[in-house]
Design a protein that fits this description.
By secondary structure, this protein is of the alpha+beta class. It has 14 helices and 24 strands.
């Protein structure tokens, strides 16, 4: 009887209690297991008599990483090449970052960047390279259409962030997993790809370790897509296959501010501020180190979109400076300082007999707790009357509101939504296919590359776009190979 073997798989079990040689059917792959005592390998062929015989074996794509880029890319590859076997290996939970993003709502993408040049400007690493065909091939509107077509209703909020109407990341996760199941993509968790090597025949031999059991599998793959996020796992595999790595550093994080009075303002928000970062090791003017947007006071310092964008653009500078520097905040960006001085002077003349603390100019729209903080920094007691405030104090208050300086003493981790700058250099891949320039049939997508976006759905869009392009490219190559094998 003739038969063909799609792939081989070696199971190396380190439990020496049995002498039984095992062979297991794993979607048509050949499994090999060692004799428990002799450690010699025996093989059992898996017959596929229920399928028509093919002149060449079916090909296999292994995706390292079950996050947004990996799962999206796997689905796309399978949809382009239905006969391609697709296996996703994830060490933890599938789509774990999708689950927690946006406070559990999942910020799918950003819907306010129809112009791809504007969209690219939201990536501190990658803004120049992504100006080309990257988002033209699969941009935010394509992503939104993909999910809507599969039953996930979306909404775009005022700041451009796109969320499921359900306000639950489960809607996105369920959609992706359902589509993967429908496309017969194999999803395996609790496993880690620890090593990879390429053969002269352009195939990859992968060593896969199960986390909970002392076992190792060796899998030969025709295509490899590394979409492991910022995990060192993906960086190690990339190096083993000839790539270099730009050392990863934190990108999205909050600022630790050592100010006991500021801590008392925890929970206070500002709808619009201008924040500027000054670092000792950065002498030249960098426009991106000034950001505008909402800001939040936390119990350890400052956060919110303006701070997170600043942390992204200043990621490498902050790392080099030990996360120490000066943050200058303009709390009233829509007011010129001379107009502000005039406003405070008029407030004094109108309310001479009132306490300064109880009569903050309404035009400033400042909460009383923050107004007290400003007065405390100026040395004005709460029961001070406006009549007792000198003109020089009015000028100082105006300057403080326009140029309030804080000492940055460190960073706070953004928990599991942590994003890094660094990874495989974009110069080492073809962005129109996501294929390696160094190793044929090797592809990358997502945060494993030296690409990171600011907050607002841009990091997920990088994942969707990269995964889609990689999956499309792999699918086309696999489809062509299948046609050539059938000739």
């Amino acid at each position: 009887m003739s038969f063909s073997l799609a792939r081989y798989l070696l199971n190396l079990h380190f439990s020496f209690s049995s002498r039984t040689t095992r062979a297991t059917n794993n979607h048509g792959y050949l499994l090999l297991a060692p004799d428990a005592n002799t450690m010699k390998f025996t093989t059992t062929a898996i017959l596929r008599g229920d399928e028509p015989q093919k002149p060449s074996a079916e090909e296999l794509l292994v995706v390292v990483g079950g996050g947004a880029a990996g799962v999206y890319g796997a689905i796309r590859a399978k949809s382009v090449a239905p006969n391609l076997n697709v296996l996703v290996i994830e060490k933890g939970r599938l789509l774990s970052k999708v689950k927690i993003s946006g406070g559990g709502r999942c910020n799918v993408t950003n819907g306010h960047c129809a112009d791809n040049l504007v969209l690219a400007d939201h990536y501190p690493r990658g803004n120049k390279e992504l100006r080309g065909s990257f988002f033209n091939m699969h941009g935010p509107m394509d992503t939104m259409s993909w999910f809507v077509d599969r039953g996930v209703d979306l909404k775009t909020e005022d700041d451009g962030r796109v969320f499921p109407v359900s306000n639950s990341s489960s809607s996105v996760i369920d959609c992706l997993l359902s589509e993967a199941k429908c496309m017969r993509v194999s999803l395996q968790t609790g496993k880690v790809v620890t090593s990879a090597s390429a053969s002269a025949s352009r195939k990859f031999l992968l060593k896969i370790e199960r986390r909970t059991l002392k076992s190792v599998e060796l899998v030969e793959a025709d295509y490899l897509l590394i979409a492991s996020g910022s995990s060192p796992q993906g960086h190690n595999l990339a190096v083993q296959l000839g790539h270099s790595i730009i050392d990863p550093v934190p990108s999205l994080f909050t600022f630790k501010i050592e100010d006991t009075q500021l801590i008392e303002l925890s929970g206070v928000t500002f709808s619009k501020v201008i924040v500027k970062l000054k670092l000792e090791n950065v002498q030249r003017n960098i426009p991106e180190l000034t950001q505008i947007g909402p800001m939040l006071v936390t119990h350890w310092g400052l956060s919110g979109p303006a701070i997170l964008r600043l942390s992204a653009w200043g990621a490498r500078y902050l790392y080099a400076s030990g996360y120490k520097g000066k943050l200058i905040v303009d709390f009233v960006p829509d007011l010129h300082i001379e107009d502000l001085k005039s406003m405070l002077s008029q407030q004094k003349n109108r309310f001479l007999k009132q306490k300064v603390l109880n009569s903050c100019p309404v035009e400033l729209r400042l909460v009383k707790r923050f107004w007290k903080y400003i007065l405390d920094r100026e040395g004005l007691m709460g029961d001070t009357l406006w009549a007792s405030v000198s003109n020089s104090s009015l000028v100082s208050i105006a300057n403080l509101l326009k140029h309030c300086t804080f000492e940055v003493k460190g960073k706070g981790q953004f928990k599991d939504e942590f994003v890094t700058a660094g990874g495989v250099p974009l110069s080492e891949i073809h962005l129109n296919t996501m294929e390696s320039r160094i190793q044929p049939n090797l592809y990358f997508a997502g945060e494993v590359l030296n690409v990171d976006g600011v907050t607002g759905g841009f990091n997920f869009q990088n994942a969707w776009s990269g995964g889609y392009i990689a999956g499309s490219s792999i699918g086309r190559v696999a489809g062509n190979a299948s046609l050539e094998g059938a000739m």
